[in-house]
Amino acid sequence: MTIEEVATWSVIQCPWCGEPNDLRVEFEDEGKWVQDCEVCCRPWLIEVRTHSGGRDVIVTRS
Ligand SMILES: [Zn+2]
Predict the structure, then answer these.
(1) From residue 50, how far is each of 2, 26, 56, 59 by CA, in Å?
(2) Residue 5 Cα, ligand 1 centroid: separation in angstroms?
(3) What is the 1 CA–ligand 1 centroid distance (Å)?
(4) From the CA of 40, how far away is ligand 1's center (Å)?
(5) pLDDT tens, position by position, 19-59
(6) What is the pTM assigned to this prediction?
(7) Which end of the chain is more exposed for a tag (fewer CB within 10 A), N or C?
(8) Domain boundaries, the chain
């Protein structure tokens, strides 16, 4: 038995400064939201898409 994960960490690359960041995505998170880069403080538009094979986390400039 495996315990279902309630949150995952995705390593994403900042679309502004190029620094890798660890992004915590809650299990129930879906859709789009805006979050600032911890390195350069510029806004990301984060989009989470759930599909049968897992989840994709897409980060673009907001
Ligand atoms: Zn950045």
Answers:
(1) 20, 12, 7, 15
(2) 28
(3) 39
(4) 4
(5) 999 998 887 778 999 999 999 999 999 999 888 888 888 99
(6) 0.78
(7) N
(8) 7-61
